[in-house]
């Protein structure tokens, strides 16, 4: 029988949190949990901002991020997980990440939905190994989201982002510089 040295024991115990943090999804309820949160988020969106239903009906797909947590003190970051729905069915799961630097302090949480208004926009998103939100995204505030019509916005932008449900001590929520990556929950 081999002896366990203090050094090996320390290294093993030190690596334990890193291994425990790796959620590989085997035997987990990750997909069910994400889908339940997506359902609740969409219900809240459509109840509070009924005009967004027209976006849903005109879109070719929606990426729903039920909860994104963002924090910063000089350096900042954000993370969340969600699902891509096409025809009302979940087809993939995604994470969103964001890093920032500058004069910032605080934390906030929010939800957002990306409405893909064209087949090309949805196809480009799905084929990308890591898609970043940028200038091709039109932002609809919740106030205008209630009356936003897909007929007028489809020609303006292939992707429409609705950010809502903000809470916390940071001002504003933007998806500029946010990266979306396909995951296996």
Automatic annotation (TrEMBL):
Which keywords describe this protein according to UniProt?
Signal
Q: Which Pfam families does the entry link to?
A: Ysc84
InterPro entries the UniProt entry points to: Ysc84_actin-binding
- Signal peptide extent: 1-20
Family annotation (PROSITE patterns): PROKAR_LIPOPROTEIN
> Domain named Ysc84 actin-binding: which ranges?
98-180
Name of this protein: Las17-binding protein actin regulator
Name the species this protein comes from: Primorskyibacter flagellatus
* Lineage, broadest ranks: Bacteria, Pseudomonadati, Pseudomonadota, Alphaproteobacteria, Rhodobacterales
């Amino acid at each position: 029988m081999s002896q366990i040295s203090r050094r090996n024991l320390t290294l093993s115990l030190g690596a334990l949190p890193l291994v425990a943090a790796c959620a590989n999804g085997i035997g987990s309820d990750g997909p069910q949990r994400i889908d339940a949160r997506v359902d609740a988020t969409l219900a809240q969106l459509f109840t509070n901002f009924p005009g967004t239903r027209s976006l849903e009906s005109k879109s070719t797909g929606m990426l729903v991020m039920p909860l994104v947590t963002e924090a910063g003190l000089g350096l900042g970051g954000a993370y969340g997980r969600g699902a891509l729905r096409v025809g009302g069915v979940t087809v993939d799961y995604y994470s969103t990440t964001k890093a920032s630097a500058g004069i910032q302090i605080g934390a906030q949480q929010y939800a957002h939905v990306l409405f893909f208004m064209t087949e090309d926009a949805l196809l480009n998103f799905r084929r990308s190994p890591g898609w970043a939100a940028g200038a091709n995204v039109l932002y609809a505030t919740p106030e205008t989201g209630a009356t936003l019509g897909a007929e007028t916005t489809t020609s303006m932008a292939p992707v429409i982002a609705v950010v809502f449900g903000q809470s916390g001590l940071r001002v504003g929520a933007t998806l500029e510089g946010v990266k979306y990556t396909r995951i296996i929950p």
